[in-house]
Amino acid sequence: MRCHEVRNLFGPYLDSELDAKTSFEIEQHLESCVDCARVFKAERELDAHIFSVLRRGKKTEGVWRKLEGQIASPTLWGRIRRKRTSTQVGLGFSLAVLVALFAIFVWPNLRHLDLAVAIEKDHRAFVEGTMAPEFIGPVPDEIFRTLNDRLDAQAFATLPSTVAFQADGARLCHLSGVPVAWIMGRYQGIPVSLIVLKRSELAHFPVAKRRIESGEPVICTRTGSFQFAARVVGEQVVCAVAETSKSQLEDLVKSVRGPG
Ligand SMILES: [Zn+2]
Fold first, then answer.
1. Ligand 1 centre and the CA of 9: distance in Å?
2. Which of the four, 23, 29, 69, 131, has the lowest number of CB atoms within 10 Å?
3. In the predicted model, what is the mean pLDDT of residues 172-183?
4. Which pLDDT belongs to residue 57?
5. How confident is the model at residue 74 (pLDDT cuts 50, 70, 90)?
6. Is the CB of residue 209 less than 8 Å from the CB of residue 171?
7. Is the confidence at residue 81, as pLDDT, over 60?
């Protein structure tokens, strides 16, 4: 099973709706794939949290914050709807309100840009200080050796030309199994993540691929509290995520020049 297939099944898996063979395949994948295991852990915790609060019939600030961060989960909406029908008592009004809020604020975002969603969690970790750069300057040899041509070492040198951007450093990261250069920095003082990947790897992000290939010079979306913008620079795709306005982030992404 591939990462995206596994992730699409997290909802039914958490609700014990899968056959034994599929469940086993998911468990096997989670044992071998750190990225999916992390996403699964977050989804399971969120699941437990949301439904325990709903059962108590009230909402809390913390849940909303978590929801905002996790809304990327395409399976969540379906699960909430299904639980709504399977839990008859105790949810009542609060769930109706929650569902209405979801429909208004969240549902439009669920037709999300897959690439933006994949990046959001890592950027949040950077903003919260739980993820930091691993190196500054040239890509260390031991990282370079693991790239297997799936990522150009130059990706780490694909930077905005605007002086308003300052890089703190970089690290190698995997988004849905795709190796990407993750450059962490500040743009006008705001933390920003630049993610650079090979254009050929867009096959793993069909929504982003479709939009990029439709000819939009810069593709933009909002994901949670963050703005996302991406464009093609040569054979790479450069994405930026930050808690800023669309026009600011567009300017940043447009100022990116390929190395050399
Ligand atoms: Zn995986």
1. 12
2. 23
3. 93
4. 55
5. low
6. no
7. no
Q: How far is the CA of 169 from the centre of ligand 1 (A)?
A: 26
Domain 114-257 sits in which CATH superfamily? Answer: MucB/RseB, C-terminal domain (3.30.200.100)
Distance in Å, CA 100 to ligand 1 centroid? 32
User: What pLDDT score was predicted for residue 224?
Assistant: 81
**Could you tell me the two tokens for 189?**
């003082």
User: How close is the Cα of 201 to the center of ligand 1, in Å?
Assistant: 15
The two three-digit tokens of residue 137, written as one number: 């300057």
For residue 72, pLDDT beyond 80:
no
Q: Kindly list the distances between the CA atom of residue 257 and the CA atoms of 31, 38, 158, 231, 235, in Å, as whole numbers in the listed order.
A: 39, 33, 6, 11, 12
- pTM of the complete model: 0.58
Note the pLDDT of residue 50: 74
Q: What is the predicted pLDDT for the residue at 110?
A: 47
Residue 78 CA to ligand 1 centre (angstroms) = 21
E strand spans, the chain: 159-160, 165-175, 178-187, 190-198, 219-223, 226-233, 236-242, 256-257
If you measure from the C-alpha of residue 28 to the centroid of ligand 1, how many angstroms do you get, rounded to a whole number? 10
Ligand 1 centroid, distance to 221 Cα (angstroms) = 25
Ligand 1 centroid to Cα of residue 5, in Å, is 9
